[in-house]
Amino acid sequence: MSVLINILIVLFTIVSMECLSWFIHKYLFHGPLWFMHKSHHQKSKSFFEWNDLFALLFAALSLYLMYIDRNGFGYPFFIGLGISLYGMVYFVVHDWFVHRRFKTFKSNNAYLQAVRKAHKIHHKNRSREKGKAFGLLFVRKNLIKSD
Question: Which residues contact 134 (CB under 8 A, 6 or more apart)?
């Protein structure tokens, strides 16, 4: 039973991270933390952006949670694991697929194309205000093309 509970904690954390990421992106990144996040909305010749520091903060939090519970394997460990897994998914989908930081990942999958389209809607506006589509993994149904 505890294995099932741990799996549910990880899955709940991943879903919660997407919701939390939407909130943080809309109200903090496009609010008081815009001074760092704006690097993500500007063309850059550099591989790294100031915005990448947010990923390091979440990575540090997940590693901390897993470290403090490394012997007990209780809920802090599995919350940290969920944050880490969300971070990996975010990296692959956002940085690798959507922004093509690495040019090796292409897909014609309808869902992934909808994610890319929603993100392009978000980046259409390069300023702090009037943004749309702040999430990553949850996309509106009307953006998903059915064949």
Answer: 22, 25, 26, 30, 122
